[in-house]
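Worked Example 4.2. Consider the chain below.
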Amino acid sequence: MTPQSLTIPETTPVSTPTIDLQLRHRTIRSFTDQKVSDDVMQTLFEVARHTATCAYLQQLTIIHVKDPDIRQTLCEVSGQPYVGGDRGELIVFVADLHRNAQIRAEVGIASQSFGRINMFLSAAEDVLLAAQNVVVAAESLGLGTVYLGSIGNDPQRVVDALKLPSLTYPVLGLVVGYPNQEPQFKPRLPLAVTVGVDTYPQVDSYTEALASYDEQVTEYYDLRNANQRVDSFTAQVRARAGDLPAENSPVLEVLHRQGLALS
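Applying the procedure from the previous section yields the following structure tokens:
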């Protein structure tokens, strides 16, 4: 059985081609050997460059990983085989306060405040906004994408591999390429528990509120691969939230070594 909700996302009251594209987002983990052209990559970088930025500080640097050895290192860090090899283009989004600190240092202005958590969070906001813009642009060109939060499994190794200076931090990676698969649309939490009006949405029992959603998620995994787990969303949260490698790596220690989030 392949219910409509698992093959086509829910419709919305208002629709445009951009909205339709966003509703049909799927993570792609298998890519063809077709190369992404330099023109396309430059266009994606321009999209990132024109993204909204916190306080116009533009605290973002993107590293396009072309060296096979560096890519293999990031593959080992992520633990994801599709990160290695030469299918798709690998890019890393870096929160970058270093550049602005250097701009100030060149005229003798100190930047102690750049070590505050507030400044790092503003740079991380720049990263996340730009990354999502790139994903939408890439998918509009027929490309597939997969975010790599898994580079956070060993952030120091990523810092070393990319030769990142102080006041920078690799927030996430992204592989962009031509899809070699057509996965199901993964069901998302209902609006009733994710959108509130004026205050945080009140839910008496998430077990009850998410019962129907849990059934959708269970069926999604069953249809995707009968040999994999068939766990509901709430079961996954109870069993493994906070236990993944990237959720237990020494992020704060690396941030501090990079001169970030000190206070």
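The longest strand covers residues 168-177. Confidence is low (pLDDT under 50) at residues 1-5. Compare this with Example 4.1 before moving on.
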